[in-house]
Amino acid sequence: MPETIVTLSRLKAFIQEALTKVGLPEQDASTVAGLMAEADLQGSDGHGVTRLPQYVRRIKAGGFNVRPNIRVVHDHLSTAVLNGDNGMGHLVMKRAAEMAIEKARTTGIAWVNSQFSNHAGPASLYASMPLARDMIGLYFAVGNANHLPPWGGLDMLLSTNPIAAAIPAGDEKPIVLDMATTVAAYGKVKTKALRGETMPEGWMIDRAGKPLTDPKRADEGMLLPLGGMEAGYKGYGLAMVIGLLAGTLGGAAMGRDVIDFNHDDDSVTNTGQAIAAINVAAFGDVAVFKKSVDTLVRDIRNSERMPGVDRILVPGERSFETRVKRTQNGIPVAPALMRGLDQVADDLGIARLA
């Protein structure tokens, strides 16, 4: 069965209708649906509509608060902590990004943590929000399930704990880095399972240290940290530091307190995220900075290539090209995912996606 192709507007409308049906206010459903569809548009397939069945299931089980009182619990000139009241993470992080941007207009740099948030989709969505104000965005998060042991250990005490950075450019596209601190994000593992594909060796190992390539057996194994078997202590250390910044600093879950939201639909996860906005104008002329970024991008892109390498990419370039392609041609939905979305539609009494 081939993939189904849908437009961005149809995908957003479908997600919004489903979320409204399970209790989200219309505006909140529109905000979440827009961000989820945007994830699929840029190729972050593990964080877009593929999450809808899980979100709907958790909402029905009481795992999400559909009418949260998202509020500031600590507020200073350049910092804040938001309590998401167990609302959907997309709503919490959009609010956090807006707060950081507003504060950075005055202070130059602002940092906002979240507590009692939830899974919010790809990190790049939020790191990119300050770009529109000529600001650099940084994003950190504690993953929503522990799949990573400490280096040399077996206890799952860490997650994929992603980091993202978005840096404005002039004539070139912004630099947008979005990466997990594991070799592969767990969302990519789930996407492989939905597509019936195998994982490359080096993504996961079993508890005996053997390569695990069947994504449907992911619960039996562990993700490898950045650096893999040779230098994974670097990825392990980075995951720990990011977790402390995004979770512990803001009073959110970290380590043994992290709830596996893949298998627990009703517990409050107390997910932690952090976003920083850096106002380029506080450091010098914005136009000069952007021109310097353009120069670096062109130097890297045009630098001498190794044999067999056709092209040197910069962070964010592939996502931008995917966005253009899918805007023109539509967004592909795998058959297994479509079956799950059809089931959601039938259960909620709404029109199917395709």
What layout of secondary structure does this protein have?
Blueprint lengths: L3 E3 L1 H14 L4 H16 L10 H10 L9 E5 L3 E5 L5 H19 L1 E9 L5 H5 L7 E7 L21 E5 L7 E5 L6 H10 L8 E3 L4 E2 L8 E3 L4 H19 L24 E9 L6 H16 L15 H13 L1 E3 L1 H14 L6
Parallel strand pairs: 3-4
Antiparallel strand pairs: 1-12, 2-3, 4-11, 5-6, 5-11, 6-7, 8-9, 8-10
Helix pairs in contact: 1-2
Written overview of the protein:
This protein has 354 residues and is of the alpha+beta class. It has two domains: 1-61 and 330-354, Hypothetical Oxidoreductase Yiak, Chain: A, domain 1 (Orthogonal Bundle), CATH 1.10.1530; 68-183 and 224-302, Ribosomal Protein S8, Chain: A, domain 1 (2-Layer Sandwich). Helix content is 38%, strand content 17%. It has ten helices and twelve strands. The strands form three sheets. The chain has a seven-stranded mixed β-sheet with strand order 2-3-4-11-5-6-7, with helices on both faces. Strands 9-8-10 form a three-stranded antiparallel β-sheet, with no helix packed on it. Strands 1-12 form a two-stranded antiparallel ribbon. Helix 1 (8-21) packs antiparallel against helix 2. The longest helix has 19 residues, at 89-107. The protein is globular, with a radius of gyration of 20 Å. The two termini are 14 Å apart. The model has no long low-confidence stretch (mean pLDDT 96). InterPro entries: Mal/L-sulf/L-lact_DH-like_ah, Mal/L-sulf/L-lact_DH-like_NADP, Mal/L-sulfo/L-lacto_DH-like_sf, Malate/L-lactate_DH-like. GO terms for molecular function: oxidoreductase activity. Keywords: Oxidoreductase. This is Malate/lactate/ureidoglycolate dehydrogenase, LDH2 family. Belongs to the LDH2/MDH2 oxidoreductase family.
